[in-house]
Design brief:
By secondary structure, this protein is α+β, with helices and mostly antiparallel strands. It has 9 helices and 17 strands.
């Protein structure tokens, strides 16, 4: 189904919904083609190809709201589907805050070219995709006698959708993604350490296809025979690939739902310091060829670049239409696009070389954060650093503290953001971090 056909179908559904008693309606029609391949120890373990199409409708009637979806695209069946959805909505409790967004906040037309679609991915045959996964596998398989298992993965996705609302929004988007992953497990005197490495891109020709398996193997072997260290306050470097684990509780506390439900430790902190002055984060939806780029969000709200935290000061929240009304706040968007962190000048290797005593954290294992208070505790793994050198791996340790004070211990941002991720966060160096071990 092409874009014009999707629009025609959405228009028909909206017209029928309004005639059937709905007061406001939003319809999305999308399709997604994807491939997933897993090769385990040189044998194809799974190969999945899917081609999905679906229509979702949000209905507002008598101050009541419901959302429904179906993959049955026959118009007569859709008319019955809509009628039943409207009738079921009437049984729900009324909620005066439910409505479509203010049309003035919608994306209209135009905007920058995002360049996030690669049509060549659709022309790749199964043999090529399997070959890419095999190449990743072969970089690690049989390369060391300590290897227990090697898995490699190929994934791609081709996505397109349109959205139409009864109060004036019309918009379409399309995206592609392609990824290669390696996961390696090895034997050691104390267990079976494993590690992974991945590369992802919007465009096939820009995807890094070499070094994935060998990097995963190297990381797994480095984790062999870890030693716990004494509990105490340490200088810590958090690797860029896992730093998002510490960011997640902050992001959750910035959402309208968390603020309204009193599950946010950042309530009332807009315009106030919440982190070290070196922390600056922008939400930037218009970066060319970035995976999170978009012209509008899932409500149709126009996407704009805006600061979230600037020099440690909280500037803005993630507020959708519904919670904006409940909180008396202007909607900004209920979700992020590309989160871009201001970087420092040094690579992680340089930060490690200047560390007298500390830990490089390369993974988080379980744990949780209390959204209301900011108290957190996570299991960690990584490496003990002394006089600028990696001494030995560590695990079975916890990092703990409170998010309201933890981010003020941030002392340095690395220079190593991954431009193929929607969260462009570098490695980060903290001081005075509580680690619990022996």
């Amino acid at each position: 189904m092409d874009t014009n056909e999707k629009y025609a179908l959405a228009d028909d559904v909206i017209e029928h919904a309004l005639k059937s008693g709905a007061e406001q309606v939003s319809v999305s029609v999308y399709d997604n083609r994807s491939t997933e391949i897993e090769i385990r120890d040189q044998k194809i373990d799974s190969l999945k190809e899917s081609n999905q199409a679906s229509l979702s409708i949000s209905i507002y009637v008598d101050k009541k709201f419901s959302s429904h979806s179906t993959n049955r695209m026959n118009r007569e069946e859709l008319h019955s589907f809509v009628e039943e959805a409207i009738e079921s909505t009437r049984f729900l409790a009324a909620d005066e805050y439910r409505s479509l967004p203010d049309p003035e906040l919608y994306y209209k037309e135009g905007g920058p070219s995002l360049n996030v679609f690669d049509g060549s991915i659709d022309s790749l045959d199964a043999a090529t995709k399997i070959g890419l996964a095999r190449k990743v596998m072969e970089e690690a398989y049989g390369k060391d006698e300590r290897i227990l298992s090697v898995s490699s993965y190929y994934y791609d996705s081709i996505y397109g959708d349109i959205m139409v609302t009864s109060n004036g929004f019309r918009g379409s988007s399309s995206k592609t993604a392609i990824q290669l992953v390696a996961e390696v497990s090895v034997k050691s005197n104390t267990g079976r350490p494993n590690a992974y490495w991945y590369e992802t891109q919007v465009f096939f020709d820009k995807l890094k296809k070499e070094g994935i398996g060998s990097k995963a193997l190297e990381r797994a072997l480095r984790k062999s025979d870890p030693i716990k260290i004494n509990s105490g306050l340490y200088e810590v470097i958090v690797e860029n690939r896992v730093a998002v684990n510490l960011l997640s509780p902050v992001y959750d506390s910035l959402t309208g739902s968390s603020l309204y439900q009193k599950q946010s430790f950042l309530t009332g902190m807009q315009g106030k310091p919440v982190a070290s002055e070196i922390l600056t984060v922008f939400d930037d939806p218009h970066i060319p060829s970035a995976p999170g780029s978009r012209l509008f969000d899932n409500e149709g709200l126009k996407s704009v670049k805006r600061p979230i935290i600037e020099k440690g000061v909280l500037k803005d929240y993630y507020i959708d239409t519904y919670y904006g009304k409940k909180l008396g706040m202007k909607p900004t968007s209920g979700s992020s696009s590309n989160l871009v962190f201001e970087t420092g000048s040094r690579k992680p290797e340089e930060m490690i070389a200047s560390m007298k005593k500390g830990v490089l954290i390369t993974g988080f294992i379980g744990g949780n954060c209390n959204g209301s208070t900011g108290d957190f505790s996570y299991g960690i793994e990584g490496f003990y650093i002394e006089n600028g050198n990696i001494v030995h791996p560590v695990n079975e340790m916890n990092i703990s503290g409170n998010m309201t004070s933890f981010w003020f211990n941030l002392k340095e941002m690395g220079s190593d953001i991954r431009e193929d991720d929607s969260i462009r966060i570098p490695s980060m160096r903290f001081e005075g971090v509580q680690l619990s071990g022996i």
